């Protein structure tokens, strides 16, 4: 463990720094400051080793064992194993110890292998070479030997070995370009700046002569936040202090681009780097299936204790008769007679616990773990979820929640980059009410046929012409766009101006690229940033230069950014662009009404709008601005707050110039995906930071809202007119008037029986709703809000802060139904809701990879969510539900005959089965078939699951693991076990003889019961299997063959390592009897018969929609094609009646049209909605072909 932080705290406190600021001092180049300037206090920092592994060679065994025995089932079996070692129990300790050892070993090997891979990756990183400046020379070292304060030389295309402060670069302006794709997925080039006083140091000797210290905050994981200052010591007594921010910090894992080399100093190394701090493990999420498993386990533990108590009590009741107390073959010793009866009873109770402990399926946990781990690969291998543009497929960050994908009830989605492409297209701009529309501009690519400019209402006067050009200049200057150079400066100028592909714009924001490209089409071309001067080419092909003085960066709270520039004529301007809600309140003049009207018009059309404003600054005002910003930037404490206050003072009294409109197109198949989720019974909420009109237009386009949807508004505008209390109760009466107090099902919105409602709420109103009520009279707003939401088919939350997104998800999670929630997003602002939801899905979008890194699953596009939930989620849940129920069932079948046997052996704890059978039942004989079933079973084909989303409803609300189903499986196990035991007992009671006249003994009886047991539980799984492949046949029939071969070898060979062999020749002797063969077949059939009858009756009388599909699919599989409409398949089998599965969806169809492929000929067939009885022929009409079905 690293005690450096504690050591620093103690050392500082002991030297009298009681009011220690949470910061560190770094001595550049390990050089002491000049004498008399400040006290030299060397500090200890961790080395640069990255440790992502969990274990070491020395602590693997104890740490892994500790973690595994924290699981209740493992700890329980350990106790049972210890009891078997301590007291005289009826079964060998091997019977409990070997399965436990198998489970612990398999899990340890899996975790050890994963950790070995992490060690291997860590060593590869820690041994990478780095170049360090020492004594004026470049020294090559391993990365792990880098220390805080070392000066590092990094060359182009190299990765930064630690978090570094940029001192100087090969570029004259002290800038360098960096990609942070490995950190946040942003492939665009970001600009970083060297310290102003050190950017001229271009040689090793110059850098090595530098005497300076850096004071900065202690390590914290925020990638985009850094506060510090550098003190540079020159000839003067007082050092020069310069502020340091995130623009000076080069992060470990980022890559240097388009810059020959840089010199930088290490400030955070190893596990203190921001990259390492961001890779800390997230909180563990538990699925509903796992909770059901634990509940079932408690029930079976109670059954086990009950069995042990019953047998212990009956034993002493039975032995109360003196004649039964001590049979001659089992006489008690003197020591046993002298023991207290309570001690003897407790010992017997423990012995019965050991005898019956196999009812707790310890191997189920390792099987479930293997199923989840191996099953997760089916998502990553899915070619349909591979995106050619990104070159990536779906990712699984955790396999613990696979089955939760099949239980989702609420989907919370971001809008920009998730529902939309985040691929901006410049549509128009409005200057003082005059609208300018260039032809198609899309992210830097000018489409063919787009020469010329269209202007709508473009008749500005002389003043208007000047303001128009000022607007265009503002958009060419107020941004963080970089020019990717591919030719010389002249080539760039010519290429950009003529639209050639010799250079292009790159930025971390697609909006900015679209705006700069739009200005290029309108005659003002941004050329480059050179020597801190921004160059633009105007309509007269003249290059204008503006000195960039200050950049007030964009943040999500202010929702605007500004630049301060000086023109070549010496005039000072502040240009500001941002959301209309953040610009209009700061405007004092301009044609606000006309611009506002155009902004609102564009928002209704679904366009993203920005407003542009400016103000001219005098030299004195600029001087005050510089002082304000410098004092805020140099602050080590509360720098963000002070900067925000400074920005607020600076960005005031603006003059409105105009507004822009950019379109963010819907992603491919986004509307189809949302519609499918609705049909599957899920409620979709859109949570976005966009304004209401823009978001609402997107919701209509994506079919979240339909034209028939009645929109309910819970917004600031409405709450200003009425009180929040009145608005909530009015909305509540509206939605409950028709539905009463019943929750409105989302699917009902597709029928005409219910009015479809959609709710729109904004962030400010949500904050008011979430506040606790001040008095009882105001009521509980949260409950009313939830009731309204439950009765709406879709909800749109706009103007949402990231934290509010998480609050919404948490609110729904905590509601009385406790629904399963899923959050999907693509940006850093979506991380909080992704972590809060039961299942978090990240989109590999253009806003970085923060969402994908923090999610449970990552997908390239929103459309892939449909298959992930409706197909993969459906399959995962069906498979693991069967696995869990089947494990409990087969263990009841296994151990209940042992319980019944005690009534026939005087409760003497005599085992019914041999030790080998007790040990291998769950490990070998019955484990592989269910594992394979849980990996590849497909009860319905993938195509049908995709075409009919309503099948998702059949598995909703954990329906396959409800108590009713669990009790059915348990009673089925009890019935089968009674058939095994009493069937064998009555069939062979005093009548079974072998060929040599011997009677079956107790081990033969137990082997017979065990044989029927193995065949029954294996064939039960075979009957439940719908998707057969060669590997199913191999595993199912191979498991039965393995049992037979093992039994023949176990009882047919004299094994030298066994002291006694009670099973010798038992299995062969049993098989030599004809009645035994007949009895095995008969008992297996009787055991399976009730379950088969139940399924046949339920399918005939009360079929689910899934069972209807299965029936039709089997009967007409050869006649169906991928074009067959699913409503036809949803009809009941014998009549093909044209009624829908869901009774609330009504509608009469006189004729169904089905496109199909038939022997290479495309045709169609018609089915009447009122078909005759089954005997009447039905025909497919094709070209020259008629076939009866």
TrEMBL record:
Residues that bind ATP: 414-416, 512, 554, 577, 608, 688-690, 799, 805, 829-830
InterPro entries named in the record: ATPase_P-typ_cyto_dom_N, ATPase_P-typ_P_site, ATPase_P-typ_TM_dom_sf, ATPase_P-typ_transduc_dom_A_sf, ATPase_P-type_domA, HAD-like_sf, HAD_sf, P-type_ATPase_IV
Similarity section: Belongs to the cation transport ATPase (P-type) (TC 3.A.3) family. Type IV subfamily.
Cellular localization per UniProt: Cell membrane; Early endosome; Endoplasmic reticulum membrane; Membrane
EC code(s) of this entry: 7.6.2.1
Organism whose genome encodes this protein: Paramormyrops kingsleyae
GO molecular function: ATP binding; ATP hydrolysis activity; magnesium ion binding; phosphatidylserine floppase activity; RNA binding
One of the Pfam families matching this protein, by short name: Cation_ATPase
NCBIfam families: ATPase-Plipid, ATPase_P-type
Membrane topology of this protein: Multi-pass membrane protein
Chief location category: membrane
Stretches assigned to the P-type ATPase N-terminal domain: 42-96
Protein's recorded name: Phospholipid-transporting ATPase
Gene3D superfamilies assigned: Calcium-transporting ATPase, cytoplasmic domain N, Calcium-transporting ATPase, cytoplasmic transduction domain A, HAD superfamily/HAD-like
């Amino acid at each position: 463990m690293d005690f450096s932080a504690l050591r620093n705290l103690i050392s500082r406190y002991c030297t009298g720094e009681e009011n220690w600021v949470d910061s560190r001092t770094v001595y550049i180049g390990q050089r002491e400051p000049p004498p008399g300037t400040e006290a030299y206090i060397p500090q200890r920092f961790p080395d640069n080793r990255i440790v992502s592994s969990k274990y070491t060679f020395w602590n693997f065994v104890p740490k892994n064992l500790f973690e595994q025995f924290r699981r209740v089932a493992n700890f329980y079996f350990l106790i049972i194993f210890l009891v078997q070692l301590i007291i005289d129990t009826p079964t060998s300790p091997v019977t409990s110890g070997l399965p436990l050892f198998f489970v612990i070993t398999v899990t340890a090997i899996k975790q050890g292998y994963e950790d070995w891979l992490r060690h291997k990756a860590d060593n590869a990183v820690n041994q990478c070479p780095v170049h360090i400046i020492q004594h004026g020379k470049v020294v090559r070292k391993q990365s792990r030997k880098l220390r805080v304060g070392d000066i590092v030389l990094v060359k182009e295309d190299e990765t930064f070995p630690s978090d570094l402060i940029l001192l100087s670069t090969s570029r004259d302006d002290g800038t360098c370009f960096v990609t942070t794709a490995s950190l946040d997925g942003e492939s665009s080039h970001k600009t970083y700046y060297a310290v102003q006083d050190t950017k001229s140091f271009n040689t090793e000797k110059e850098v090595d002569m530098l005497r300076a210290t850096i004071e900065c905050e202690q390590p914290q994981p925020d990638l985009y936040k850094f506060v510090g200052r550098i003190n540079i010591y020159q000839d003067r007594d007082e050092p020069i202090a310069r502020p340091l921010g995130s623009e000076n910090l080069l992060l470990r894992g980022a890559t240097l681009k388009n810059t020959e080399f840089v010199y930088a100093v290490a400030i955070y190394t190893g596990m203190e780097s921001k990259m390492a701090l961001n890779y800390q493990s997230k909180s563990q999420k538990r699925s509903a299936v796992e909770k059901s498993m634990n509940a079932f386990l408690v029930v079976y533990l109670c059954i086990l204790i009950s069995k042990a108590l019953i047998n212990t009590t009956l034993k002493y009741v039975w032995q109360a008769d003196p004649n039964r107390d001590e049979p001659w073959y089992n006489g008690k010793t003197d020591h046993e007679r002298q023991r207290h009866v309570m001690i003897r009873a407790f010992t017997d109770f423990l012995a019965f616990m050991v005898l019956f402990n196999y009812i707790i399926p310890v191997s189920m946990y390792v099987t479930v773990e293997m199923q989840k781990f191996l099953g997760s690969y089916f998502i990553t291998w899915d070619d349909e979820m591979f995106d050619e543009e990104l070159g990536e497929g779906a990712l699984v960050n955790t396999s613990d929640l696979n089955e939760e994908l099949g239980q989702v009830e609420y989907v919370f989605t971001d809008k920009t980059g998730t529902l939309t492409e985040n691929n901006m297209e410049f549509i128009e701009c409005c200057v003082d009410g005059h609208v300018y529309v260039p032809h198609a501009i899309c992210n830097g690519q000018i489409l063919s046929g787009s020469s010329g400019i269209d202007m709508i209402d473009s008749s500005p006067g002389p003043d208007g012409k000047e303001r128009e050009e000022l607007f265009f200049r503002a958009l060419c200057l107020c941004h963080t766009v970089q020019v990717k150079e591919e030719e010389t400066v002249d080539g760039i100028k010519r290429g950009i101006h003529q639209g050639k592909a010799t250079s292009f714009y790159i930025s971390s924001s697609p909006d900015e690229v679209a705006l700069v490209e739009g200005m290029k089409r309108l005659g003002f071309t941004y050329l480059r940033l050179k020597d801190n001067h921004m160059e633009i080419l105007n309509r007269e092909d003249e290059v204008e230069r503006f000195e960039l003085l200050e950049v007030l960066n964009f943040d999500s709270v202010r929702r605007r950014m500004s630049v301060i520039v000086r023109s070549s004529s010496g005039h000072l301007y502040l240009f500001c662009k941002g959301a209309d809600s953040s610009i209009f309140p700061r405007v004092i003049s301009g044609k606000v009404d006309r611009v506002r009207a155009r902004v609102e018009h564009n928002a209704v059309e679904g366009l993203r709008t920005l407003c542009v404003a400016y103000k001219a600054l005098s030299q004195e005002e600029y001087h005050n601005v510089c002082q304000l910003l410098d004092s805020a930037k140099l602050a080590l404490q509360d720098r963000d707050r002070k900067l925000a206050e400074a920005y607020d003072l600076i960005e005031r009294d603006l003059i409105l110039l105009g507004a822009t409109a950019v379109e963010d197109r819907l992603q491919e198949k986004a509307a189809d995906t949302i519609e499918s989720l609705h049909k599957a019974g899920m409620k979709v909420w859109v949570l976005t930071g966009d304004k209401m009109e823009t978001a609402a237009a997107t919701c209509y386009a994506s079919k979240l809202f339909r034209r028939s949807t009645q929109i309910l508004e819970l917004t600031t505008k409405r709450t200003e007119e009425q009180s929040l209390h009145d608005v909530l109760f009015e909305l509540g009466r509206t939605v409950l008037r028709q539905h009463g107090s019943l929750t409105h099902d989302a699917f009902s919105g597709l029928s005409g029986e219910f009015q479809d409602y959609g709710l729109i709420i904004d962030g400010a109103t949500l904050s008011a709703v979430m506040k606790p009520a001040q008095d009882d009279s105001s009521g509980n707003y949260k409950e009313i809000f939830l009731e309204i939401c439950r009765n709406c088919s879709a909800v749109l939350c706009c103007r949402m802060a990231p934290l509010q997104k998480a609050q919404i998800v948490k609110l729904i999670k905590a509601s009385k139904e406790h629904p399963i929630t899923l959050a999907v997003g693509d940006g850093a602002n979506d991380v909080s809701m992704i972590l809060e939801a039961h299942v978090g899905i990240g989109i590999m979008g253009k806003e970085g990879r923060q969402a994908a890194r923090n999610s449970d699953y990552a997908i390239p596009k929103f459309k892939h969510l449909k298959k992930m939930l409706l197909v993969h989620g459906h399959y995962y849940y069906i498979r693991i539900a069967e696995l869990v129920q089947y494990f409990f069932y087969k263990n009841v079948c296994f151990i209940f005959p042992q319980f019944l046997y005690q009534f026939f052996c005087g409760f003497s704890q005599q085992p019914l089965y041999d030790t080998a059978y007790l040990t291998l039942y769950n490990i070998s004989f019955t484990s592989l078939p269910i594992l394979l079933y849980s990996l590849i079973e497909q009860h319905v084909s993938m195509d049908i699951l995709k075409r009919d989303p309503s099948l998702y409803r059949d598995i909703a609300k954990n329906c396959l693991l409800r108590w009713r189903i669990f009790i059915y499986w348990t009673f089925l196990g009890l019935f089968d076990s009674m058939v095994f035991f009493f069937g064998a007992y009555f069939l062979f009671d005093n009548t079974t003889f072998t060929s040599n006249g011997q009677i079956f003994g107790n081990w033969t009886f137990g082997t017979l019961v065990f044989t029927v047991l193995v065949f029954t539980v294996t064939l039960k799984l075979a009957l439940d299997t719908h998707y057969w492949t060669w590997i199913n046949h191999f595993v199912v029939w191979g498991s039965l063959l393995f049992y037979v071969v093992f039994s023949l070898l176990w009882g047919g060979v004299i094994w030298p390592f066994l002291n006694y062999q009670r099973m010798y020749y038992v299995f062969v002797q049993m098989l030599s009897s004809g009645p035994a063969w007949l009895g095995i077949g008969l008992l297996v059939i009787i055991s399976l018969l009730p379950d088969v009858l139940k399924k046949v009756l339920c399918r005939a009388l009360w079929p689910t929609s899934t069972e209807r599909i299965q029936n039709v699919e089997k009967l007409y599989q050869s006649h169906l094609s991928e074009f067959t409409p699913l409503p036809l398949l949803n009809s009941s089998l014998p009549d093909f009646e044209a009624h829908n599965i869901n009774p609330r969806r009504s509608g009469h169809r006189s004729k169904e049209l089905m496109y199909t492929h038939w022997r290479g000929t495309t045709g169609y067939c018609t089915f009447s909605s009122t078909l005759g009885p089954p005997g009447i022929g039905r025909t497919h009409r094709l070209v020259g072909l008629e076939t009866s079905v």
